[in-house]
């Protein structure tokens, strides 16, 4: 009886082992091999879409994105708090150096200046009186010193009033055009409020990033070409400046160039590509 059970158990183990081998052979994909030839990829990897294939490295020179900048530009903020009474220019208008850009209501500043002038005149008269008493030997040292100090304080107040009055008008520091005007006439602004942005489009430069390793072969004075997207034209340029520090993360450095000749069709903010 025991011998019969052992035989049955051994037969069952044999059948189970053969089934496992057959399953493993069916699960393993067949790979066709060619003697002395390339090994074929598995079928599931033979039909990848073309977009998953890495592009080939182009032999063309690399392009660097550039931006046109104005050498002279300014974003002028309010030097004082007050109401705007004069905005003679609009966005895009041209102006000359010294022209009025923004005017403030200066009635209070003018009154403060007049009061300060009167105080100076009063204390100058008192000092003169103290000097006359001093000559007559009928004077007080403390009164004399106090009057002199009052005169100095009055003159300082006059200086403050005059400086405030100068801030009532904002004049153009150079020839140029208005590029932004975020305020309106009769608007009340606080100190530091943006008033007007101006640019001088007569002198432009271009700015872009290049790998820092290129500096050894591209020193200042290197000639290159720039294609501006907005005009569709190509311009000759010269490398004029290099930033004082490179970016350690991207390993790039900002460089600047000047377009060799003047072009009226270029404006600050335009972009394009540069290649050496």
From TrEMBL:
Keywords assigned by UniProt, alphabetized: Signal
Report the family membership.
Answer: Belongs to the membrane fusion protein (MFP) (TC 8.A.1) family.
Q: Which GO terms describe its molecular function?
A: efflux transmembrane transporter activity
Keyword Transport attributed: no
Pfam families, sorted = BSH_RND
- InterPro entries for this protein: MdtA-like_BSH, RND_pump_MFP
Domain (Multidrug resistance protein MdtA-like barrel-sandwich hybrid): give its ranges: 73-200
Annotated signal peptide: 1-24
Q: Which organism is it from?
A: Acetobacter orientalis
Q: What is this protein called?
A: Multidrug resistance protein MdtA-like barrel-sandwich hybrid domain-containing protein
The reply on keyword Nuclease is: no
| GO (cellular component) term, any one | efflux pump complex
